[in-house]
């Protein structure tokens, strides 16, 4: 049940916090403010019906958005922890590869030095 609630809360939060929702909200409020005096059903300058519905919407959305932010933050923290573990493992692999490459470099340098100076080799 919690997973289902988390999906709903995060979905609503993503929807309501999108720019497209903001654009739609501004258009609806603009049409309301422009059209209601022409149709004489929400008297300006106070717009009591619009204020009622906007305040009701805000009262409902505030707790939903708070829960949605908690859910999204929890999932982000889990993702960041997984990424941290991956980076730690990659760092260990890179350190191991670096030590191997240093060893190979030393061996190749010793072989190059032996080729340049064959008299220094033991047994000749």
How does the SSE layout of this entry go?
Elements: H1 2-16, H2 19-39, H3 48-116
Helix pairs in contact: 1-3
What would you say this structure looks like, in words?
There is one protein chain. The chain is rod-shaped and about 110 Å long. It has 124 residues and is mainly alpha-helical. The mean pLDDT is 87. The protein is built from three helices and no strands. Helix content is 85%, strand content 0%. The protein has one domain. Helix 1 (2-16) crosses helix 3.
Number of helices: 3
Q: What is the H-and-E element order?
A: HHH
Q: Can you tell me the residue ranges where pLDDT is under 50 for at least 5 consecutive residues? A: none
Summed over residues and divided by their number, the pLDDT gives a mean of 87
| Envelope shape | rod-shaped
Total tally of structural domains: 1
Give a brief rundown of this model.
The chain is mostly helical. Helix content is 85%, strand content 0%.
Features:
85% helix; 3 helices; 124 residues
């Amino acid at each position: 049940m919690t997973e289902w609630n988390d999906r709903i809360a995060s979905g609503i939060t993503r929807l309501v916090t999108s720019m497209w929702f903001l654009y739609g909200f501004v258009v609806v409020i603009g049409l309301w403010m422009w059209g209601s005096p022409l149709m004489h059903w929400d008297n300006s300058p106070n717009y009591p019906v619009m204020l009622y519905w906007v305040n009701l919407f805000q009262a409902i959305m505030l707790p939903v958005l708070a829960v949605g932010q908690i859910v999204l933050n929890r999932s982000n923290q889990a993702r960041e922890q997984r990424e941290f573990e991956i980076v730690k493992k990659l760092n260990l692999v890179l350190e191991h590869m670096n030590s191997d490459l240093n060893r190979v470099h030393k061996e190749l340098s010793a072989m190059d030095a032996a080729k340049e100076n064959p008299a220094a080799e033991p047994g000749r």
